[in-house]
Design goal:
about 130 residues; alpha+beta; 3-stranded antiparallel sheet; globular
Length: about 130
């Protein structure tokens, strides 16, 4: 994944290193290296994320996550308040979590399977993915 800032300031953590990116700067995370991006300020940031190879599920997870946030269905840390929504986003985007939290992966997969049977995954895609 490559993160490129268009405007504002984006924080990108790759491994243990946090980079603060300004416009025209970028950072790259290699496959299977733990990484995250965040904006700890109240100022807006615009950036592009390039995935190679592309991944439809990851794109749908991001669109759904931002849609849920816009609809007020996330907590202060931007995590969905509905556990089924969280599980669907985790599995759609093929999320990986570090250390002890990795033990939750089978639980998320089970919850996501239930969410699929209930039509929750398709509802998120229909509501938030263009």
């Amino acid at each position: 994944e490559r993160f490129g800032v268009r405007e504002g300031e984006l924080h990108v953590q790759v491994g243990k290193e946090i980079q603060i990116l300004q416009p025209a700067q970028s950072a790259t995370a290699s496959p299977y290296v733990h990484h995250r991006f965040f904006n700890p300020t109240v100022r807006p940031v615009r950036f592009l994320v390039e995935l190679r190879p592309g991944h439809t599920g990851f794109e749908q997870a991001l669109q759904s996550a931002y849609g849920l946030a816009a609809d007020g269905k996330t907590n202060a840390k931007s995590l969905p308040t509905n556990v089924y929504h969280l599980a669907v986003l985790f599995t759609l985007g093929e999320g990986m979590v570090p250390r002890l939290f990795a033990l939750l992966t089978p639980v998320f997969r089970l919850l996501a399977a239930r969410a699929r049977k209930k039509g929750i995954e398709q509802e998120l895609i229909r509501n938030y993915c263009q």
